[in-house]
Amino acid sequence: MANVINIKKGLDINLQGKAVPEVVSAGLSDVWSLTPTDYHGFVARVLVKAGDRILAGTPLLADKNHPEIQFVSAVSGTVLEIKRGAKRKLLNVLVQVDAQPEFVSFPKENPSDLSAETIQARLLEAGMWPFIKQRPYDVIANPAVQPKAIFINGFNTAPLAPDYAFALKGQAAELQAAVDALSKLTAGSVFLSLPGEHAANELKSLKGVEFRYFNGVHPAGNVGVQINHIQPVNKGEVVWTIDALNLLPMGRLFLKGKVDLTRLVAVAGPEVIKPQYVRCVPGTALSALVGGNVHKEIPLRYVNGDALSGQRVDADGFLGAYAHQLTVLHEGTDVHEFVGWIMPRFSIFSASRTYYTWLTQKLFPKQTFAPDTRILGGERALIMSGEYDKVFPMDILPEQLLRACLTLDYEKMEQLGIYEVAPEDYALCEYVCTSKIEVQRHVREALDALKRENGD
Amino acid sequence: MKALRNLMDKIKPTFLEGGKLSAFHSVFDGFETFLFVPNHTSKSGTHIHDSIDTKRTMFWVILALVPALLFGMFNTGYQHYLAAGLLDTVNFLQIFGWGALAVLPYLIVSYVVGLGIEFTVAQIKHEEIQEGFLVSGILIPMIVPIGTPLWMVAVATAFAVIFAKEVFGGTGYNIFNVALITRAFLFFAYPSKMSGDSVWVTLNDTFGFGSAVSPVDGFSGATPLGQAAIATGEQVQLTSIVGEPLSLWNMFLGLIPGSIGETSTLAILLGAIFLVVTGVASWKIMVSVFAGGIGTVLLMNAFAVNAYMAVPFWEQICLGGFAFGAVFMATDPVTSSRTETGKWIYGILVGVLAMVLRVLNPAYPEGMMLAILFMNIFAKLIDYYVVNANISKRAKRALVKQNAQK
């Protein structure tokens, strides 16, 4: 097969509770929420007030810096409350959901016949734009800048990630429509990355994209790693990225003329009784997704996304805007492990060869683990070297870039490749770190600081 | 363990802010995290973590040092009885027991002084106690001669921990290997006590055991390296402390005078295998130090103008602290190069320098300590160039692209 890229570094962590390919419908929760903190780095302007009647597709928020970027409702109903926290920080826009969804009507058109301006305006208006992210900075794409290429990741290698072949089944037309629309927005190529095996047929048959195949363990499915191997981002360049799962609502917008954000969410993790897929919209209350399907007798942590790079969410919270996966883990505050650091710990996975799971994993590849959320050690200065390199399959020196990030040395950050990375690319580094450094937080803060510094 | 946990929970408030013993908070915290894995859960970023931590890492290095330490104890007793000519009258247990008793005070002094300072500093800075000294504390007794007075070890350890580590910010920030600074301090501050022929074998009693002995006729405490440095004639003739010729096997086993833990290449090899298999230390550094050392010796063999230069590499490796330094000191991740390419360069230069200092500079019979300390300084410079190579490669990538677009 042409265009095959082998990723050698990385780490697969086999967690318990992979979602079985069965779908249940969550139905709609009574209250639906648009949660601005799901989207990184925008200042929200509220477009509605409590009591307003809204439809699925009605804009609720806009970005203060880019007012054309809108955030729409996935449900129809009545605005219940604009919830704010300390310093009037916007927390949620809560909506009382109607029994029967009503949709804002958009024209049904073939995107191939539309101009780039029309497509862009349509995506912005219908709230599809936030699905498109950009490198540098890993934020919502700036619509004013044309990207040199668009990268679609057609698979996910994170622990317990949803199976794209299953989630995209039978929706080839939607995918094609979305790809047709996106390809008008760049003068460069649209790259689609697929796994070497078990790629979704709906993706393999797409037209108008350049295919790249990736073999290897996590993070081979991270779009940042894929970009680094396909066409790395240099200073001054901008590329857009989008998850293949997020192509579906875009395709529906053009084919059906409505905002239908329905997705299949993998409800997975060691503490889920029956891991499965749930059909729902982002913003649905978690209670509607999990119900009694979790081990409630222990403290739990809910994660919007995967266990490595997902966002923490409270049990009474809502499904994240980008979350196609809800991971439920044991919050290990009730665990007091006696001299655990010296024990063999056969049941806790470790990439370190001072434990034995690297060996048992080879002998019993199907062995799965049920980690809790303890950091399992004390925070220290960086001591061990070469740890990050083993799980960072990019042409970048991960530790040196992190050090530049820690000291906010902008010049070094640029020289060492900050424009190519997102916090999620560093997730495995944080996982394996002996010194328990909060790597993703530091990278995120550095990206934000650099964005401010550059005035982007 | 429930009872212990309950006890910890009960006394914990005493040590927290406002408690009676809050001045010992870091110490309590140190013991608590030693006994029970802290139940802190992740606040940001990754929700699950690998079960490796610094405690385990450091402890695994200590495990790797155990064979060399045990052998060092045995050898201390062996040399003692050999010097006294009493080897035939004692059994293995007596030899080992005597040696263990002789070495134990050094271990205790090193740990008490070093950890005492670490605990105090952690308390002053309101930080958690760091584990770095657990390894330094066992390394220090292993790299000093058995005849070193204990108070000197105490002074040197205090100096090294304070001025080579704490002033830089603690474990992870130090530039020099702490244990080697201890040895360097001893070496330069008390040269008369740290070199020469009398410090490598102890003839005294230890805690009243085995009474002080007088050496047999022909006794000389000179280490093989010391002998080689002053050798004249065609070939270096190495002898044991009682004047019998040394076999390569004895050098490899470590039945020769030297610093407590450094003599047995076999025990060090076991430790090296353990460190490499568990991935705690960098095999790249170990391999490159040996490669650099062997290459240098081969070169000197080829152009030998004196007997020392003609000593074959297998003897050079077995003698002195070369193997010990390569496996346990040069591989310290904090003070060595942190880039993968840098590790090769760093290791090779340590090996080359160690042999050059050892053979070509008659003032220092042993070159490993100075070679590693010297390369500790240059490790950061090597990294600087390796990182710069990456930077210019990346810059070129962007440039090629710009040209292609034109």
In short:
The complex is a heterodimer of chains A (456) and B (406). With 456 residues, chain A is an alpha/beta fold.
How would you portray this structure in words?
The complex is a heterodimer of chains A (456) and B (406). Chain A has four domains: 4-14 and 113-256, 3-Layer(aba) Sandwich (Rossmann fold), CATH 3.40.50; 28-97, OB fold (Dihydrolipoamide Acetyltransferase, E2P), CATH 2.40.50.100; 263-345, Ubiquitin-like (UB roll) (Roll), CATH 3.10.20; 388-454, no CATH class. Chain A has twelve helices and 21 strands. Chain A has helices spanning 116-125, 164-167, 172-183, 201-204, 223-230, 247-256, 286-290, 357-363, 398-406, 410-416, 427-432, 439-454; strands spanning 4-7, 20-25, 31-34, 44-46, 53-54, 59-63, 70-72, 77-84, 90-97, 133-135, 139-140, 149-153, 190-195, 210-216, 239-243, 263-268, 276-280, 300-304, 311-313, 325-330, 337-338. In chain A, a hairpin with a 3-residue loop joins strand 10 and strand 11 (139-140). In chain A, helix 3 packs across helix 6 (247-256) and helix 9 runs antiparallel to helix 10 (410-416). The relative contact order of chain A is 0.16. The mean pLDDT of chain A is 93. Helices cover 62% and strands 0% of the residues of chain B. Chain B has two domains: 10-39, no CATH class; 59-207 and 221-236 and 246-389. The model of chain B has no long low-confidence stretch (mean pLDDT 89). Chain B contains 16 helices and one strand. Chain B has helices spanning 2-15, 25-35, 54-84, 92-124, 132-142, 150-165, 178-189, 191-194, 224-229, 248-253, 265-278, 283-302, 313-318, 322-329, 340-360, 368-405, and one strand spanning 36-37. In chain B, helix 3 packs parallel to helix 5 (132-142) and helix 15 (340-360) runs antiparallel to helix 16 (368-405). The chains are: A alpha/beta (456), B mainly alpha (406). Chains A and B meet through strand 21, helix 11 and helix 12 of A and helix 2, strand 1, helix 3 and helix 16 of B.
